[in-house]
């Protein structure tokens, strides 16, 4: 059999296989899909976007600036950036100082070589230029640039310090305010002197001091007043009690009539002169009394109600 016969048989075999290939074979379907996609622009677009495309790599990169370069400026830079920039300025200033030192050393070497004056000028040009560049760089980085950065850092530090001092002062003021509101009331030495001077003008009088049974603070405050009245020559009777209704805070000096009016007026005048806040209101209604102590035989009589301390303000 010749080569032509073999080629003819192969071509006939391919034609026979093509005629007998099923219509839905994978190869035929693939060819149909390719043909269909070439006729639809949208499909071509999707296929192109899904395909892996070669992205050109930009080999030209920007030279990275040193830390002393602040792209947002000194004011808009963060504190960390300013600290890093200051350190970078110091390093660059030291570097330029080194350039100056090496350039001066080079000029010394040229001078020691005992060359002619013209040769010395020619050989020292580069050394002189290096000295000038080194001095300019040292002044710029070590003085101008670093000083601006340090000034901004100091301003920020002073601002933070001022804010911290303000917060501390506010916290101290708030603490003192709460301490004064929570502290037990006391009669100051100045108030005691004024009270005794005023109350001593009335002799043979009695004051009945009321306070809450279960309030140690008002009881202790009542004892302060009781001692002052005794030292002023008054008879004193301290009466613990429970009262009807809500608590009545603060101090009350009820007004009296008849002969007792002299005593109540003397107490009110003494408290006013001493700067002690009180109200000219009747004491609350008594619910129960217990354990009264003292002397209430003298006349005229005045009443003094010592209520609980005011609640702290929010």
């Amino acid at each position: 059999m010749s080569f032509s016969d073999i080629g003819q048989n192969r071509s006939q075999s391919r034609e026979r296989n093509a005629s007998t290939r099923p219509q839905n074979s994978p190869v035929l379907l693939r060819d149909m899909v390719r043909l269909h996609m070439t006729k639809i622009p949208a499909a071509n677009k999707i296929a192109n976007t899904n395909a892996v495309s070669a992205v050109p790599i930009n080999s030209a990169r920007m030279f990275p600036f040193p830390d002393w370069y602040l792209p947002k400026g000194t004011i808009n830079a963060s504190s960390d950036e300013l600290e890093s920039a200051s350190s970078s300025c110091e390093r660059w200033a030291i570097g330029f100082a080194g350039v100056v030192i090496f350039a001066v050393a080079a000029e010394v070497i040229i001078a020691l070589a005992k060359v002619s004056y013209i040769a010395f000028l020619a050989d020292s040009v580069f050394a002189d230029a290096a000295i000038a560049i080194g001095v300019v760089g040292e002044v710029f980085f070590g003085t101008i640039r670093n000083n601006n950065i340090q000034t901004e850092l100091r301003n920020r530090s002073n601002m933070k310090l001022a804010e911290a001092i303000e917060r501390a002062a506010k916290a101290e003021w708030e603490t003192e305010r709460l301490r004064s509101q929570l502290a037990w009331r006391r009669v100051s030495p100045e108030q005691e002197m004024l009270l005794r001077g005023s109350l001593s003008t009335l002799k043979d009088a009695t004051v009945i001091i009321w306070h809450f049974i279960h309030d140690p603070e008002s009881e202790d405050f009542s004892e302060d007043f009781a001692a002052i009245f005794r030292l002023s020559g008054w008879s004193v009777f301290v009466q613990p009690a429970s009262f009807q209704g809500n608590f009545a805070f603060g101090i009350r000096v009820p007004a009296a009539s008849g002969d007792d009016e002299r005593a109540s007026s003397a107490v009110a005048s003494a408290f006013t002169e001493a700067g002690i806040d009180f109200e000219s209101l009747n004491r609350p209604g008594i619910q129960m009394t217990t354990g009264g102590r003292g002397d209430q035989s003298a006349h005229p009589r005045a009443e003094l109600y010592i209520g609980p301390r005011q609640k702290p303000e929010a």
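The CA atoms of residues 103 and 127 lie 5 Å apart. The longest helix spans residues 125-182.
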